[in-house]
Amino acid sequence: SGGKATTTERAMASAVATATKDAAVPRASDSPVWLQVLSGMLLATVYIAISAGMILFNKALMREDRFPFPVFLTTLHMTGSLSFSLLLWNLLPSFFPSASTVFEEVPGDDKSLLRIFRAIVTALLPFWPIAASFGICIVAGTWAYRLASVSFLQMIKESHIAIVYVLMLAFGLEQPRLRYALVLFFVTISATLAVSNQASLSVAGLLMQIVAGFFGSLQMVLTNVMLARSGRGKIDPMTMVLCVAPSMLALLIPA
To answer: Higher confidence at residue 223 or residue 88?
Structure first.
């Protein structure tokens, strides 16, 4: 009975210690609702500001007398993304929680550079279709800035959600629903009416932005397909950039 009492006491002590430890560690869900809402609004504001700044900066660069080279500009973007991702990965690996899963087959103690290179290429192979779609999207979208105004292109982008939904249906990732179809139909018609009344309608800019929208939507869908079929689980955004950037560079540099 003494052994049983000792075991019970140890179990109770362990439970008390675990409960004390859990109570001492603050959880994100325990934070006030107003703080969560404020954090979300702050992140959304920062994202919109950076996105708008990048769009206007690319539009300014695409002038004929400045830097009208969308492919090379996208290559520079990806070079910067890869460089900073590798630097951040070495300094703060905790920002890349799923990187170890993606590169688990890469030998860390192998002195053969060829084997390491092959292992890295094999690990990045599932990301190549995503990188190709994303590369075409960025190049076509940047090229469209040479042909049309920012406001015109932004109105066209509103209809891209319909392309995403159609592709999700085609790949079997979504079930058809009448309510979704009606909402997307309304959004598409509204965007079409807004574009059709433009004083200076650029057909070339319209077609280029549609190409960018299609491949951007395809990139999102292919990402979901890869995650669903590979069993990798959720890949964090930083690891996705780390994997997509070198694949895009491999496709862009020859161009």
So the answer is: 88
Tokens of 110: 């192998």
Q: For the segment 192-213, what is each residue's pLDDT rounded down to a tens digit?
A: 777 666 656 778 888 898 899 9
Whole-Å CA distances, 244 to 26, 36, 72, 249: 34, 31, 17, 9
Q: Which amino acid is at 18?
A: T
Written as six digits, the tokens of 74 are: 């996208």
pTM of the model: 0.71
Of 89, 120, 228, 106, the C-alpha closest to 168 is 228
* Of 134, 188, 144, residue with least CA distance to 55: 144
Largest pairwise CA distance in the chain: 91
Question: How far is the C-alpha of 116 from the C-alpha of 108, rounded, in Å?
Answer: 8
Structure tokens at 79: 């070079």
d(C-alpha 117, C-alpha 193), whole Å: 51
Res 7 pLDDT > 50: no
For residues 213 and 154, the answer to whether their CB atoms sit within 8 Å is no
Q: What one-character-per-residue DSSP string does 92-147 give?
A: -GGG-TTHHHHTTTS-SS---HHHHHHHHHHHHGGGHHHHHHHHHHHHHHHHHTTT
> 104: which residues sit within 8 A by CB, 6+ positions away?
none
Report percent pLDDT > 70 for the chain: 80
